[in-house]
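Supplementary Text 2. Reproducibility record for the structural model of the 264-residue chain.

All settings were left at their defaults, and a single model was retained for analysis rather than an ensemble. We include the record here because the model underlies the residue-level annotations in Supplementary Table 4.
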Amino acid sequence: MYAFEYTQPNTLADAASMLASSGGRPLAGGQSLIAAMKLRLSQPGTLVDLSGIADLKGIRKDGERLVIGAMSRHAEIASSATVRTVMPALAEVAEGIGDRQVRTMGTLGGSLANNDPAADWPAAVLACNATIRTNRRALAAADFFKGMFETALGPDEIITAVEFPVVERAAYAKFPNPASRFALVGVFVARTSNGDVRVAVTGAAPSVFRAMAIERALSQSFTPVAAKGVVIDPDGLNSDLHGSAEYRAHLVSVMASRAVAAMN
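Retained model, structure tokens:
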């Protein structure tokens, strides 16, 4: 690990100022960044720890939206009575992330800012058409994710909260890597009260994406059979030692089918 300076501001304004002046990196749960630093794959000169900023925490229902603070830990989301009542699928997502240590330290905002190709939260955020709020603006999920480990965030921009529109039904199904518990393929299916269906896929490609063909099939027949019957084009999907692009394409339909089955 390279040498670095560590700061822990108490306000969002101070954190933004420190990031702007130092060119450093924000530290949320540290589950990805600290590991990269230990391997000398990342060399931030300054770490700005966001854990002391109260404005970045908290979970609440605000009208027809569920608002989750960026520094909410996965374990907090998984155990939240509000989340389990309003949108239980989000609690299921949080509960399936990593191991107990990762869930205790990792945060929603940190996961989204990192945008790992196999992370679980991007699928939930995109499928629910959530809004990512920062200290500067509000970003639609479709505009936030740009590519592998790439987002629309500026260098000193900080995620403050995520607003999830309350959907009628939702579920997440993933085929996890047995070691890391990251998604080899994960599919989040959301259905609104007016029948609109959104399906988002993680793990299969360099970045999260919507499975439009499955959305169309489910709009016609919201059944596991309809989802499983869609043939996904493997072109552009990930292929590695864990699974070929063709295997991942197959898993997309299978995981979508399982998510729909969990909702019925």
